[in-house]
């Protein structure tokens, strides 16, 4: 299968201290808000967009965009990766690679 993985500019963290985190990134670092919802705020950093989400804390999650998410997921599992979290309504498919990096695989625009 020929599948191209291309990184997006998105990095997401999830935290239970959402108010503290959004204050830190918005006020202390002075990052401008690029998007906002009730549970997610995106900050523009210049090189990447940092999303801070309400919820159980986890480390940073990077994102790769692929032409076919399901095919890429199967290829990654076959290569020793594990699915950490998946929610098609987001869409979200967090994968941990054999070396400890967690990333989301998302649908590349056509």
From TrEMBL:
<feature type="domain" description="Glyoxalase-like">
    <location>
        <begin position="11"/>
        <end position="105"/>
    </location>
</feature>
<dbReference type="Pfam" id="PF18029">
    <property type="entry name" value="Glyoxalase_6"/>
</dbReference>
<dbReference type="InterPro" id="IPR029068">
    <property type="entry name" value="Glyas_Bleomycin-R_OHBP_Dase"/>
</dbReference>
<dbReference type="InterPro" id="IPR041581">
    <property type="entry name" value="Glyoxalase_6"/>
</dbReference>
<protein>
    <recommendedName>
        <fullName>Glyoxalase-like domain-containing protein</fullName>
    </recommendedName>
</protein>
